[in-house]
């Protein structure tokens, strides 16, 4: 902790960074989902995948760079952990659906 910062302020910053990472991860996966849904009807599927990848990487990288400049590496690490959470949740839900279980459990 930096001199003059309160524990509540630091924890609020970590929470906001985690939420920002979750938002970036969700946006990344949402963009991937939209791209995969459009692939069967795309005239140039390889170009669609490449463009989607570059846009998703660009948005994610810009978000992480913004956070790194504003907050520092500790908050960037927390955001990176938050970035992986949507992927883990979706993986669990998809596996449960494929196994015939209730994904809400």
UniProtKB/TrEMBL annotation:
NCBIfam families found in the cross-reference section: F1F0_chp_2
UniProt keyword Transmembrane helix, yes or no: yes
InterPro entries: AtpR-like
The keyword Iron-sulfur is assigned to this record: no
Pfam families per the UniProt record, alphabetical: AtpR
Biological source species: Marinobacter pelagius
Keywords: Membrane, Transmembrane, Transmembrane helix
Domain of life: Bacteria
Transmembrane residue ranges: 12-34, 46-67, 73-90
Entry protein name: F1/F0 ATPase, subunit 2
């Amino acid at each position: 902790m930096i001199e003059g910062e309160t524990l509540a302020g630091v924890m609020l910053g970590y929470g906001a960074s985690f939420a920002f990472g979750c938002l970036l991860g969700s946006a990344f996966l949402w963009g991937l989902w939209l791209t995969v849904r459009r692939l069967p009807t795309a005239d140039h599927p390889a170009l669609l995948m490449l463009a989607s990848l570059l846009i998703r990487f660009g948005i994610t990288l810009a978000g992480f760079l913004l956070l790194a400049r504003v907050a520092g590496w500790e908050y960037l690490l927390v955001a990176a952990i938050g970035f992986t959470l949507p992927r883990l949740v979706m993986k669990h839900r998809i596996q449960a659906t494929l196994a015939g279980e209730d994904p809400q459990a």
